[in-house]
Amino acid sequence: MNEKRKIILSGIQPSGIFTIGQLMGAVNNWVSMQQEYESFFMVADMHTITVRQKPADLRQHTLDSVALFLACGIDPEKSTIFVQSHVPAHAMLTWVMNSFTGMGECGRMTQFKDKSAKNEDNINIGLFSYPVLMACDILLYGADVVPVGEDQRQHLELTRKLAIRFNHHYSDTFKIPEPVIPKYGARIMSLQDPTSKMSKSDENQNAVIYLNDSDEVIKKKIKRAVSDSGEGIIFADDKAGIKNLMTLYSITKNISIKEVEKEFESARYGDFKIAVGNSVAEYIAPIREKFEEIKKDKKYLE
Known about the structure:
Layout: E1 7-12, H1 20-33, E2 38-43, H2 45-48, H3 55-72, E3 79-83, H4 89-98, H5 103-107, H6 110-118, H7 125-140, E4 145-147, H8 153-169, E5 178-180, H9 215-223, H10 240-253, H11 257-263, H12 269-295, H13 298-301
Parallel strand pairs: 1-2, 2-3, 4-5
Helix pairs in contact: 3-12, 4-7, 7-8, 9-12, 10-11, 10-12
């Protein structure tokens, strides 16, 4: 008899085309993990409405997200793909868990502070209790592990606290999930401000690589990427720009950071950027082509 597979759950908001940061920080892990885990991957549309949306755009972005899941390698024969709002239990459990969550616990969340600063005209209760909904997403499916980017570790810690708290006051109901965070690529940074995470909401579009960017656009963005003073292709915290580009090259070439350093030990920044641009363009091209093909079949996506 086969041992029961462990469960993973993760999701991405349908707020537009995915970035290479989302691919490398999340979706790539999903693709590899679906081979050994019972996998649930959701389009997190309930999270998206904490920021004002145009309904028609949200509907289109939801379908686009499913198409991108498939284009990136999520196999619907191996994984369950679903839309969050289609499962009422997410909202139902959130009301229960809101009653177990302290105001201070939500108020301390880094993403709440960041998003409040960016949306001063719409600091709503949903934005505040967003981490509780995220916790319920995970707990509903009995997830053993959650593949997340480094920036989501704080939310997963709250999830664990709420599960332990509920189990203590009532009965042993919820599994306590563990995070899975990759060593490299968990946090791809902005090309224009490598001290900040790459974000599709960035006003400077040269800072972000989207999965539907053309080869030429990708190469131009990499060429314009902020590098560092000094010389040397070295993976160091005081060389944030080069460190970010090295991470991109390492993942797109499937080689180690040490191998990147060795390959470019005598290279100039300009030559290195050209190599990174070519590598990233080659990496994204088949995903972009498959996405455009799948996107045409709306009936299949629905």
